[in-house]
Amino acid sequence: MMGTKGRLATILIALTFFGCKGPVQTSAASASDGSSGGASSGSSGDGAGSASSSSGGTRVEYIKDETLNNMDAIPVRFPANWKFQGVLFQPGNCVDRTYAVWRATSPDGKTFAERMPMLGWTYGTGPMLGFTPKDGCLPMKGAMSAQDFAKYMAGTLHVQAVEVKPFPDAAKAALEQDAQQRHETAQGALATVQFTNGSTPMKGMLKVMVRCSESVTAAPRGLAPYAAGQPVHTITTGSASTVDHCEANVVYIASPESQFAGLLQQWSAPGMGNAMGTDAWQEAWTQRSMANTRERTRGFINASNDGFNAQQEGYRRQAAVQQQMHSEFMDTMQRGTDISRANAQASTNARTTAASDWVDYALDQKTVMNTNNGQLYKMSNQSTPMGPEVQVHGNGTP
User: Fold this and answer.
1) Does residue 397 lie in a domain region?
2) Sequence-separated (6 or more) residues with CB below 8 Å from residue 121
């Protein structure tokens, strides 16, 4: 079994994407307060380097870990005058890595970058497959390439996939080398997409990374029935097991089509997006994980511990988020590739993405449409739409 420090290292590599169960929400300060929660330069643990921005520089906000006394956990770098929200999910049944979900939005609300909740699935053969938890996982029976996953995501988002291609050679080589060191396989894909927001033509990109690991358990053996005159020997008493587990990580950026080239350049700069966790948080997370392991070994966990209770509440909330995601994703798969593409083309006037509902749910937000002009924007779940505003799904439907 992978050690705690090795497991956290794998988790942090998964977090560094574009550039956990228990949500912790972090809201950025207003654009005028560029110093709030930010950092002008990262420490060795922050991992978020400087990056140029056409909107006047960048700033860093930290996604906090509520289960560790609201420690600064994951730094995210984004344009300085954008709005930001983020949550942290701890490992669970379906996704065994800590991961961040966040959204950064331009002042006019039309341009965004968001990291979606992760999707996972398990498949294989043999009796051990039946003992593997699958709650909240996609019910897929085999592997899926990153490019195929990107195509299905485009269908689920109700956007038109214009081009789907693998990672460039350098990024592909780095990803594969890292995966080999962690005894995994990994693929990456980029999908260019189109849709409309009201009357505004929009363009976006999905960045997909799929990581998979495999465990093999030999068939059990036992002593053969005693037979007079025969030497004692062993025989196979069951079947071998092969269990594969995959997790898909998706980052989505989009803007009005006329601004997309600048957006892509902006978010491709080194350090943009989320980086590895702070040194203090990594150490605290590792120590807590080791302590929990010792408690489980002794057969109990102190249920009155505030951190443990916060994790349990997070587990329940993440399950609800992933159930919604999985249902929508599987609906797309079941319609078939051709039908999905046709539906995606027909839905390019849907004004925004249906799967933004996933990030909305994680960030305690909702999508609202102005019925006078068809424009969509986000607001808190604690606010009530008024006048021409009506609440809709991320794809603009009631």
Assistant:
1) no
2) 94, 137, 138, 139, 140, 245, 246
The residue whose two tokens read 């409309």 is: 196
Q: Confirm whether 207 is domain-assigned.
A: yes
Radius of gyration of the CA atoms of the chain, in A: 23
Strand order in the sheet with 71-79: 58-65, 71-79, 273-274
Tokens 């390439």, located at residue: 145
Count of CB atoms situated within 10 Å of the CB of 236: 11
Residue 304, token pair as written in the block: 């009155």
Q: Which of 5, 60, 7, 14 is nearest to 251 (CA)?
A: 14
Residue at 227 is within a domain: no
Model confidence band, residue 76 (pLDDT cutoffs 50, 70, 90) = very high
> pTM of this prediction?
0.70
- In this structure, the strands spanning 112-115 and 241-256 are antiparallel
Residue 334 and residue 139: Cα distance in Å, rounded? Answer: 12
d(CA 331, CA 12): 31
